[in-house]
Amino acid sequence: MSELSLNRRSMIKLAASAGAISGAFASTGRIALADDSAVTPLSGTVTIHKLGPITLHSYTAPEASAMVNTHIVETANALHVIDAQFLQGFASEARGYADSLGKPIAGMYLSHSHPDHLLGAAQFSDVDFVTSAAVRADVDKNQGMYQRRKEQLGDTTELYLPTGSLEVGVGDWDGVEVLISEVNDAEAAVTLTFAFPEAGLVIAQDLLYANAHAFPLGNAENWIAALQSIAATDGLKVVGAGHGLPASPGAIDDAIGYLSFQQATLADSADAKTAIAALSKAYPNYGGRDLLSFVNFRY
Ligand SMILES: [Zn+2]
User: Which of 182, 188, 234, 268 sits at 20 to 30 Å (Cα–Cα) from 133?
Assistant: First the structure.
């Protein structure tokens, strides 16, 4: 067995354990993953699904970063990375994990313009990074906000932004068909989803918060319609969430139920504190608790 595959096996084993992360690590840390002597347990969690012609490796940050996901789609000869984490430490872990797989990264893709999926792209600055023209236009509107968030985090890396050259529609990733779709005015202004019909996989990113509190500032009606459309996908086996572990299709029904309850709660509550308390009480085990702070913007 090659050194590389041994290294990969040991990291997969280690990835199952999620540990605590310090503030210093969150902004600046880099874990040495290049050789077995320096392997440190990942702070995030890696989940692996073998699905027909692809293997999906999902790197999920811990609760400290709202369980945000970087998905790595492994095909016969290459890796294709979807979204790049928020904090540099977790992005660095995701990059180290990708490098351990021993295949070149053919490209990185941005699903939408929110900073928790983009700021960590600095760890992939040697990789082609693309999104659709519409998502790129949204990215341009948010550049001031990215800089403010980086300052708050003490993140001194240079922002690495995608080009807007990605075509929406049917694509070919290393011989595997991918259907890239644009969803407007749902969780974000524009969101890309990535469907792999031969694999029974849809990477829905922030259209699905799996066992996690959903961002409360989206257009819930459009968002629920988009989830219903994903749920109706033929042969669907696994859904890649934007936050929370990759899930079975049943998680979509749960997310629709959450969004309905969230909207009713926001409408019925006198203030943000009351609404947050009601959401926390109804979903006591949900992750992504920091996302509840955005409820304040609804009042
Ligand atoms: Zn997100």
Answer: 234
68 Cα–ligand 1 center, Å: 6
Phi, psi of 141 (to 5 degrees): -65, -25
Our count of domains for the chain comes to 1
Cα 299 from Cα 296, distance rounded (Å): 6
Give residue 201's domain range.
3-298
Separation of CA 39 and ligand 1 centre (Å) = 28
pLDDT digits (tens, 9 = 90+) for 27-66: 334 444 555 555 567 899 999 999 999 999 999 999 999 9
Q: Which residues of 261-280 are buried (b: 16+ CB within 10 A; e: fewer)?
A: ebbebbeebeebeebbebbe
Alpha carbon of 2 to ligand 1 centroid (Å): 37
Q: Look up the CATH number of the domain holding residue 18.
A: 3.60.15.10
Measure 71 CA to ligand 1 centroid, in angstroms: 13
281 Cα: distance to centroid of ligand 1 (angstroms): 22
Cα 244 to chain centroid distance, Å, stands at 8
Provide the edge-to-edge strand list for the sheet that holds 190-196: 169-173, 176-184, 190-196, 201-209, 238-243
Q: DSSP 3-state helix, strand, coil percentages of the chain (rounded to 5)?
A: 40, 25, 35
pLDDT computed for residue 29 by the predictor: 41
What is the 274 CA–ligand 1 centroid distance (Å)? 24
Lookup: tokens for 192: 């890309």
